[in-house]
Amino acid sequence: ALEPGEQLSEEAAVRISCSLTAAEHAAVHVTSSGMGHTFRVYIVASWLSKLVSQAQEEQILSGDEIARNVDYNLGRFNGAWLSARQIAYSSMPESITHMLWILANMINFVLPWEYVSVCRWMTWLPSIFITISFHGIIRISSAMENPFGFDEDDIDLGKMVEHFDEEMCIVMHYAALDDVAGENIYRSLQNSDNLVTSTF
């Protein structure tokens, strides 16, 4: 806020004209919805369009050198925008799909039989690694398919850690009580009296 009698400098006036409005500022913070990233990109595009329109009205772009620079930078922005859209809506990478396929087969053919019969009370240890790897990769790959790629706030790490901590505590609790490690917890999860493999 300005003090009584204080005048606004020319630089501050220019910055104010380039600042976000209250509606734009609120829209930028809409990130909890599935379209939050889309809103932010379109807000930036709208803000850029407003700046270009204001510059054109003030005849700032009348110089040849300035016009060439603006045209070049807008072309770069347009190329980056199209590239981001192409990456955002592409399918899951083959490497991640192959890794998920390997993990699914490991769980089907190895975990229910070998780990319980060989590791016994230590079954919870490899179960933790496989659980984190499998579910973690699925969550990361799903987040990468969100509009405009993978961002640092796509995965709620706090919620993920809390979920995995609860799962691990359950497995470790049963591993300490059972003679054959997590056999009872496995049966209860599968709603079966016998250990059988499931098909993914």
TrEMBL record:
<dbReference type="GO" id="GO:0005254">
    <property type="term" value="F:chloride channel activity"/>
</dbReference>
<keyword id="KW-0472">Membrane</keyword>
<dbReference type="Pfam" id="PF25539">
    <property type="entry name" value="Bestrophin_2"/>
</dbReference>
<dbReference type="InterPro" id="IPR044669">
    <property type="entry name" value="YneE/VCCN1/2-like"/>
</dbReference>
<keyword id="KW-0812">Transmembrane</keyword>
<dbReference type="GO" id="GO:0016020">
    <property type="term" value="C:membrane"/>
</dbReference>
<keyword id="KW-0406">Ion transport</keyword>
<keyword id="KW-0813">Transport</keyword>
<keyword id="KW-1133">Transmembrane helix</keyword>
<protein>
    <recommendedName>
        <fullName>Bestrophin homolog</fullName>
    </recommendedName>
</protein>
